[in-house]
Write a structure and sequence with these properties.
- The protein has 342 residues and is an alpha/beta fold.
- Helix content is 36%, strand content 15%.
- The chain has a nine-stranded mixed β-sheet with strand order 1-2-3-5-4-6-7-8-9, sandwiched between helices.
- The protein starts with a helix and ends in a 9-residue tail after the last helix.
């Protein structure tokens, strides 16, 4: 559903339908019932095809669905309800990873690092998507070095083209305000809830995506060497960032998110279970679960930070930080550990 050929075909079909509609309408301008039905069919058909083509383009940008199976809910997986010690089991198959280039990756100026697109399908969740990986210039200079990781949850196209995250990160690193780090830009289309009998969004973001990055690049694997950012005031990114840090502190040692985004997504995502929904509510977890050993920056704080208890540390951030990419990266950079596991 996100391949260039399919997108182009959808647009061509929609445009042809509109042209055919415009050319045929004058032939059926009569007042009879049959001609009125033909006019209605032409108008409705062309508009439906045009709408579908626009939805395909939006899906390609936002990565809501990566396949027809994904769209119609054919993915399935094991449901993890609450935090608990993992049961011993054979390691999953290696993630299917394919680093490559596209039009977005070629926009980064020479000398500012490299940008790669990572196509993957999770071995645990079965979810497939594309993420973009920024590699700082230092990545190619010292092949023995491992780098900390920032997982930036947002639309890749918007983050790369409008917010210019790779260029801003390169500028901050060159000025010495930010340590060299790998930045993974991933969409939140899969969500971040493991739906009973449905899409396993949390497993994808907390296990499959990090495993793919670990396999493809030299990144830190010690606790605290990953952080996650979801700076949007609205939308799922902030909620997902908070959830990943609070439920998976063994991987994500720090996070930045906006307090207004912390409401769990609506719908029948929790198997009609109030207890499962509570476990996916960051505010409920803050009050009823042991605090995780993480540091969080809370944009537009509404009291969330005041409820944090050690070893969790929370710092209010101004609402302007939601649009200040360098400030977000600098804050996370001060809480990242570059070390690897022994």
């Amino acid at each position: 559903m996100t391949k260039a050929g399919f997108i182009a075909s959808s647009l061509v079909i929609a445009l042809v339908a509109v042209v055919v509609c415009v050319r045929l309408l004058p032939r059926y301008s009569g007042t009879g019932l049959g001609q009125a039905a033909v006019r209605a069919g032409l108008l409705v058909g062309s508009q439906v095809l045009l709408l579908l083509a626009l939805l395909v383009v939006i899906n390609s940008d936002m990565q809501f669905y990566s396949s027809w199976e994904d769209l119609f809910g054919a993915d399935s997986g094991t449901v993890r309800i609450a935090d608990q010690s993992p049961v011993a089991q054979p390691p999953p198959a290696a993630p299917r990873v394919r680093p490559s280039h596209d039009a977005l990756t070629r926009r980064l100026p020479a000398g500012e690092g490299r940008l790669r697109v990572l196509s993957l399908r999770g071995s645990r969740s079965g979810i497939g998507t594309r993420a973009y990986v920024y590699l700082p210039p230092q990545y190619a200079q010292d092949r023995s070095q491992r780098f900390p990781v920032v997982l930036f949850l947002a639309s890749p196209r918007d983050t790369i083209l409008r917010r210019r995250l790779p260029e801003l990160a390169a500028r901050e690193i060159a000025a010495g305000r930010l340590r060299p780090e790998v930045i993974v830009i991933a969409p939140t289309g899969p969500g971040c809830v493991d739906v009973p009998g449905g899409k396993q969004g949390e497993t994808f973001l907390s296990e499959d995506l990090p495993a793919a990055v670990d396999a493809a690049y030299r990144v830190g694997t010690a606790p605290g060497s990953w952080s996650v950012a979801g700076p949007g005031i609205r939308g799922p990114a902030g909620y997902c960032a908070a959830l990943l840090a609070m439920r998976h502190s063994d991987r994500f040692g720090s996070a930045v998110f906006a307090a207004p985004s912390l409401t769990p997504p609506p719908g029948r995502l929790y198997g009609d279970s109030r207890s499962i929904r509570d476990e996916y509510d960051p505010r409920w977890r803050l009050r009823h679960r042991p605090p995780p050993p993480i540091s969080v920056g809370v944009i537009a704080d509404d009291g969330f930070s005041a409820d944090a208890r050690p070893p969790m540390r929370a710092e209010p951030l101004p609402v302007t930080a939601a649009q200040d990419v360098p400030a977000i990266l600098r804050w996370l950079g001060t809480h990242l550990s570059p070390g690897s596991r022994p």
